[in-house]
Task: structure prediction
Amino acid sequence: MTRSVLVWRAWVAVVVLLQIAGLPWNEHNKDKAKRLLQEAGYKKEPIRFYNAWLEK
Result:
């Protein structure tokens, strides 16, 4: 499994947890964000977002 798939799965897990907990999307809580990234195994590598809607 590639690293990008693992990062994607971690991101989806965070999104699902936020939706289940009923938390707002824009908390602006840097400490919590750092903790969640650490728990997901993030190694300070660049994160690239891909939006298929922008493709021609």
User: Anything to note?
Assistant: The chain has one domain: 3-54. The mean pLDDT is 77.
